[in-house]
Write a structure and sequence with these properties.
Blueprint (H helix, E strand, L loop, with lengths): L10 E9 L8 H10 L3 E10 L10 H14 L3 E4 L5 H11 L2 E3 L1 H12 L3 H16 L25 H36 L4 E6 L5 H9 L16 E7 L3 E7 L9 H6 L1 H8 L3 E7 L5 H14 L7 E6 L9 E4 L5 E5 L8 H12 L3 E8 L4 H9 L3 E6 L5 E8 H8 L8
Parallel strand pairs: 1-2, 1-3, 3-4, 5-7, 5-8, 8-9, 9-11
Antiparallel strand pairs: 6-7, 10-11, 12-14, 13-14
Helix pairs in contact: 1-4, 4-5, 5-6
Length: about 425
């Protein structure tokens, strides 16, 4: 931050109010998980009830005294609110409590900053942090609102606060430009996959639903997976070979959360575009979670916000081992897979998931038996380049008999070139 604050630490006092004015309330247990994921040590949890937030300090005077006494009792260095605070509320609370104050958005940004590994992920986190910080520059800067003075410091009348706002805007423009370059590079990769007709399957779901564990199980990868919120931040792509379909690209993406701050959705567009351009979404759901229906709605809300709600979706109910049920596929009235129940931790049911993906992704596939004359070597080579040849045999007359399976778009394109194969 660009201003002096009391010494930071790990011991945290958590605050949650049930507000009558809120239509959708935050989950206090989820907030505690967020604090633990950030590395905090919750020493007290203060809860209360209000009709509406206090405009100056969010909480009333009595509750503010209770929080201050708790901070002194536990020698806490930070107070975290399970709500979005305005810059003035944050400033007033820090002045009254004499310690750092962080709201829900700032906490999520801190977790994202810890999890970012790739250059792109770090840029996205910094952009979201700067956008969040730009509204809070006024905190602690009252002594710098006057213009610079003194020999060699008299400028054109720009205050220190204006200078820092200008520097922030310049940095935000620079990061936005670099992220735009990343988006163009990603889009180029997606266009290459589309030209090669390689389908993309994207994992989406509420944070800590088990997406990375399932990703590792399916692709035999070693992506970081942990029982904590936002364990995955950077998108990871792996090629997966499906029987009767061929190669598909599987994408592991950042998890969603209730009331995900809009700044984060905007900043992480480059990541979320892997979801937006997928051919199939695997919506991973924690089947054992008490709030699983709420989590499903939250994910669907974010998908609608980024425009991915029209992409075909397969629900994957994970953590079946905690329910002690048998894996299965639920189908709709037309026989199409709708839900797969499995356990990514034990691997039970992953074969059913691969079967369901094959059915949904491989719907428009062509399976043919071809007989190619020696002069049709170009067509044979093209079929091998596409990975479409499942079996090949030669007769005594030199004719190659091939069993092929490939997307209809590839089939139609090949049939437009050169002589027709002998069927």
């Amino acid at each position: 931050m660009f201003f002096d604050r009391p010494g930071s630490g790990e011991r945290a006092v958590l605050v949650h109010l049930n507000l009558s004015s809120e239509s959708e309330r935050e989950d206090p247990r989820e907030f505690e998980e967020l604090v633990l994921s950030a590395g905090g040590d919750p020493v007290a949890y203060i809860m209360g009830q209000r009709d509406a937030p206090h405009p100056g300090t969010f909480v009333g005077s009595g509750k503010l005294e209770e929080i201050a006494a708790c901070v002194r009792e536990h020698d806490a260095q930070i107070v975290m609110f399970n709500h979005a605070l305005s810059p003035s509320q944050e400033r007033n609370l820090e002045r009254a409590l004499q310690c750092r104050v962080l709201d829900r958005t700032g906490l999520i940004l801190d977790i994202f900053a810890q999890r970012a590994r790739t250059h792109e992920g770090k840029l996205q986190v910094e952009l979201a942090q700067l956008q969040h910080m730009s509204t809070r520059l006024v905190r602690g800067w009252t002594h710098l609102e006057r213009q610079k003075g003194g020999i060699g410091l008299r400028g054109p009348g720009e205050t220190q606060l204006e200078t820092d706002r200008r520097l922030l805007r310049a940095r935000i423009r620079s990061i936005t430009s670099r992220l735009e370059k990343v988006r163009r590079q990603r889009d180029q990769g997606r266009r290459s996959r589309r030209r090669a007709e390689v389908p993309t399957v994207s994992l989406v779901g509420y944070t800590n639903a088990g997406k990375s564990t399932l990703f590792n199980r399916l692709t035999e990868s070693t992506v970081y997976a942990a029982d904590q919120l936002f364990a995955t931040l950077d998108p990871t792509l792996r090629r997966l070979q499906l029987e009767n379909v061929g190669p598909v690209v599987l994408a592991d993406t950042v998890g969603f959360i209730a009331h995900l701050p809009h700044k984060l959705v905007e900043a992480f567009k480059a990541t979320l575009e892997e979801t937006l351009n997928a051919d199939l979404l695997l919506h991973v759901i924690d089947a054992a979670a008490e709030e699983r229906e709420d989590h499903i709605h939250q994910v669907e809300d974010v998908l609608a916000e980024i425009g991915a709600d029209r992409i075909p979706q397969l629900q994957v109910y994970n953590k079946l081992d905690l329910l002690q049920q048998a894996p299965r596929i639920d189908r709709d009235t037309a026989g199409r897979p709708e839900r797969v129940w499995l356990s990514a931790a034990t691997g039970e049911g992953t074969d059913l998931l691969l079967q369901a993906i094959s059915e949904l992704v491989g719907q428009d596939m062509v399976s043919e038996e071809l007989a190619l004359e020696p002069g049709q070597g170009g067509l044979r080579a093209a079929l091998y380049r596409l990975g479409a040849v499942e079996a090949e045999d030669y007769g005594e007359d030199g004719i190659a008999h091939l069993s092929v399976r490939l997307p209809r778009a590839d089939w139609n394109r090949l049939m437009k070139k050169g002589p027709e194969p002998i069927l």
